[in-house]
Please model this.
Amino acid sequence: MLLVLRLIARAPLSLLHALGSVLGWAIYGMSPTYRRHLRENLAAAGLHDARIRRGAIASAGKMVMELPAIWFRPHRDVVNLVRSVEGAEAAYAAQRAGKALLFLTPHMGAFEIASLYAARDMPITVLYRRPKVAWTEPLMKAGRGRNNVRLVPADLTGVREMFAALKRGETVGFLPDQVPGRGEGEWSEFFGRPAYTMTLAAKLAERSNVACFLAFARRLPHAEGYSIHVRPLPAALAGERATRRINRALEALVRECPEQYLWGYNRYKTPSGAPPPPQ
Model:
């Protein structure tokens, strides 16, 4: 399988994205559950534009097909796919001031490339969730854990390692919009609906030695590469819960490029054993 993925990785990005668009529409057509989630989530966010819906369908397939190129091309070639970076100056300034960096990268655009690009300039510890299909884990670790990227599992051991990295003044990152397990989250509004939201991101962002930023890699038109956009976590509003602060920031980020968010992800599910959402 690794050999097959390395062969696919050599294909032009334009071909991978073209095939990805076809794949995205095929999944949309064949899976009523996926189709329902995508439509419901877009509607909840007030995004009724058919152009955004079509873009999201194709983008989900592109995300799958570009993975081999991001994971298995030489690191320098992957970094060179990033054509521009916007907003990173504030993060570098915080780092120079002695702050550890926390990057929150949602399921948006080519999120897999963000940590690999960051690793060009700094070591980064990335939290990952073990896949349900066990044999894919070595492929994931081989693709993500390169150069200065250190992968740690989303369990107690991994969380401890992330805290240790932050204490050393290093950089950490993870996906803040994954549905956490029982006891690892709380219900918080996300695009107008209660979503079981991890508390870890909020706890880390509130540490005095941490500067928190949101980042995503936008796919450029015509498969020309990617542009990375970095945004500081906004200040909390009066009386705002920490998890809502994170979700509000994510909402603003998603609205910058809604057609590249993974709207088909079942963000509003109730994890096994978790309390039901508030009525």
About this structure: The first strand starts at residue 82 and ends at 86.
